[in-house]
Design goal:
Elements: E1 4-10, H1 19-28, E2 31-37, H2 42-45, E3 73-79, H3 81-88, H4 95-105, E4 110-114, H5 118-121, H6 124-135, E5 139-140, H7 159-165, H8 169-180
Parallel strand pairs: 1-2, 1-3, 3-4, 4-5
Helix pairs in contact: 3-4, 3-6
The protein binds flavin mononucleotide.
The site of flavin mononucleotide has 16 residues, from helix 3.
Length: 181
């Protein structure tokens, strides 16, 4: 059986430090991962060994061929306040956002792990964006325990600790379930 293509979109928050583990877990579960970082995520990726997973940054030029096969599924880990709101609002002014908007529009199976503190999650746009994404079929997974039914803000000063204990398996399982349904 050929591997399926997984886009891992990585935004600028402490959980970006686990991208390499996501690549490894994806490979172990029969996916071909492509890492698509936002510009703000790049400092977290600098010291990570992403193996042979392609890292795709910025838009291609009009004369460049496509750089990736179409995705079978998309994981957004972590999803920042900024990207999650822009995505839900249909804003496609960066390459990762274009990928996310296209995934939503084509109903490609997608799971996002929102990662933000309560000062940001208290902004009214946050709840509206989560509702839009859920309505469109995006799985929302809590970074603390992988729950797909509840979502807690990241407590101040705990970002690195939440990142350390984060598990990729529930994300991959949720994507598998969405592919099978
Ligand atoms: C050390 C550090 C930690 C951050 N943690 C978070 C976070 O947990 N959640 C969040 O939404 N933004 C966080 N930010 C802010 C985002 O990186 C910033 O809003 C950025 O513009 C997001 O861009 P992106 O959505 O394109 O990745 C953090 C920034 C820094 C420098």
């Amino acid at each position: 059986m050929t591997n399926r293509t997984l886009y891992i979109v990585v935004c600028g928050a402490p959980l970006a430090s686990r991208a390499a583990d996501g690549v490894k877990a994806a490979r172990a579960n029969g996916w071909d991962p492509y890492v698509i970082p936002t510009e703000a995520a790049l400092p977290w990726l600098a010291d990570q060994d992403l193996g042979d997973a392609p890292v795709i940054t910025g838009n291609r030029t009009p004369d460049q061929p496509r750089r990736t096969p179409s995705p079978d599924a998309v994981a957004v880990v972590p999803a920042t306040f900024n990207t999650l709101n822009a995505w839900a609002n249909g804003n496609a002014h960066t390459y990762p956002l274009t990928i996310l908007c296209a995934a939503l529009g084509s109903r490609t199976p997608t799971v996002a792990v929102p990662f933000a503190k309560s000062d940001l999650t208290g902004h009214p746009a946050w709840l509206a964006s989560l509702a839009v994404l859920r309505y469109a079929g995006v799985g929302i997974s809590d970074p603390h325990d992988g729950s797909s039914t509840s979502l807690a803000p990241v407590e101040p000063g705990t970002g690195e600790q939440v990142a350390e204990t984060f598990r990729w398996e529930p994300i991959l399982s949720q994507l598998e379930a969405r592919l099978d349904s």
